[in-house]
């Protein structure tokens, strides 16, 4: 089934332009971050790593990086644990209202982040969780965990429930059956959820803006503050490093997707 | 079976508790805060109680004058008058001064208080002042929800429009709606041919093209917004290019304009439109197209009567997702836009942090939630719930 040659040329041309529009701003940031001077002009007039050196030696950027990774790792662990357990529970259970429960657990995904953030701020202020690391991790977990639930539920669709019955008939207690039969079979889904959770936490800005204390700067918060203050290529170095992280997430998620796709092939 | 359900409940419970405690209850509290009215009853309990039994005719009894003088002085003394003053000032500008002046005069006032207060400030002799205090005694108020629509209540309770110079929020909601719809429309317009082309490309080109969509999808919203901030500067590459092409004579101020906000939002949200369309189109059954062709349909007919209708669920899902994310987007307009380009989200943040008017922040949040809820409900209705909305933002 072929399109008219002219239509095909037009479609491919339009697609190329849109894809260029999508990718070009990021490429520009990467190129400009190697600028030898404070001037951000294209094409660059030379090559220098001074802004990366600045990033790695400036206390506030190093601190923000550390904070970001501490929060992201804690969020990933918590979200993956709770999300995987809940998804397995949702798959195992035979009760009414399951669809409603899935909707409830994934509601933070479609709620405007600013509303979630403002609400958390009110509620956390009541119990003294604002401005604390646990508060920030809980906040990030709430918005990251729906992705884990969705990813694990999707993989569980391909899980053969007979394996669980076999484990039970061989005398395995339910916890052992889950840990030694279910989890090894669905780990690509769990890992994909974890990658999503990590990326969500690392990018998260609005909730951090409300919940973080005055000294709790994460990379996005530091970037936002720096851009508003004075734009230097150091910000672009930070942006490039975050961009590299997202490429790693993309690679990880795609290879996991391929792996689980291979599993489901007959 | 029963044991399995116990195990399932045990596995679901921790996450359910987290979501309830850290999301559902807090959002519920916010909705409650949009109508809660506690400041007056908390600072002036006795006055509130006395006013509750006042019939609203003439002026309240001497007891209410005495109570308000004493309780205002006490509230000032104990430094808890701020919330009250702000709440009443939001009801009617100028009441803050009246309350603070009365509180400071507290010790010097002598019975009969009705005369002493009116002598201090003639507004205590006006029925409207007392009606407003009576109405603000709680426990609930429609003040914030009305004000978020540029409406207010006169002291005797009729709903009217606020003064022209105070009008703000209807324009704000219309702007939010207009920018979000425009961004959604542009995203769908750009996304459809891309999704179509990628779905029909052969491997490995389809994967290459899809990767170019996934790269921005995975990278941080703030990184991409910062990129536009750099590109659109007065001395930035976009201005350079426009000058070089002869399209501009002098560098233009692009940052802080509506165009900049729309371009950045389209860039940030475009992958969320392409990906659902692409996933629907790759699963689209090509035998229908062959059937249409064998029945004599030409290319245009095949597209309009077969491909387009079959791909609409993807369009609906992508459009809903883009719209949801656009109305809720804070980062991009805040960084790229000027004061006149800000959306509801920016005002929520401002009421939270700068003005500390939590009632207004909550009321705007309630309307924003209603907008999002309506879009989700509409999408479910249109697609029969077949397409899951939801993605990383």
UniProtKB/TrEMBL annotation, chain A:
Concerning PROSITE patterns, the annotation shows:
ABC_TM1
Protein family membership:
Belongs to the binding-protein-dependent transport system permease family.
Q: Which UniProt keywords apply?
A: Cell inner membrane, Cell membrane, Membrane, Transmembrane, Transmembrane helix, Transport
Tell me the ranges covered by the ABC transmembrane type-1 domain, including all copies: 65-253
Membrane topology according to the record: Multi-pass membrane protein
Name recorded for this polypeptide: ABC transporter permease
Q: Name one Pfam family in it.
A: BPD_transp_1
Location(s) in or outside the cell: Cell inner membrane; Cell membrane
Is Signal among the key words of this record? Answer: no
Q: Specify the superkingdom.
A: Bacteria
Transmembrane residue ranges: 9-34, 69-92, 99-124, 136-156, 177-199, 230-252
Q: What is the lineage of its organism?
A: Bacteria, Pseudomonadati, Pseudomonadota, Alphaproteobacteria, Acetobacterales
UniProtKB/TrEMBL annotation, chain B:
Q: What is this protein called?
A: ABC transporter permease
Identify the residues that the record assigns to the ABC transmembrane type-1 domain, covering every copy: 173-379
Instruction: Give the record's membrane topology.
Output: Multi-pass membrane protein
Superkingdom assignment: Bacteria
Question: Primary place of residence?
Answer: membrane
Keywords of the record, alphabetical order, are: Cell membrane, Membrane, Transmembrane, Transmembrane helix, Transport
The regions listed as transmembrane in this protein's record are 177-196, 208-232, 252-275, 312-336, 356-378
Classification via InterPro entries: MetI-like
Localization recorded for this chain is: Cell membrane
Q: What's this protein's family per the entry?
A: Belongs to the binding-protein-dependent transport system permease family. CysTW subfamily.
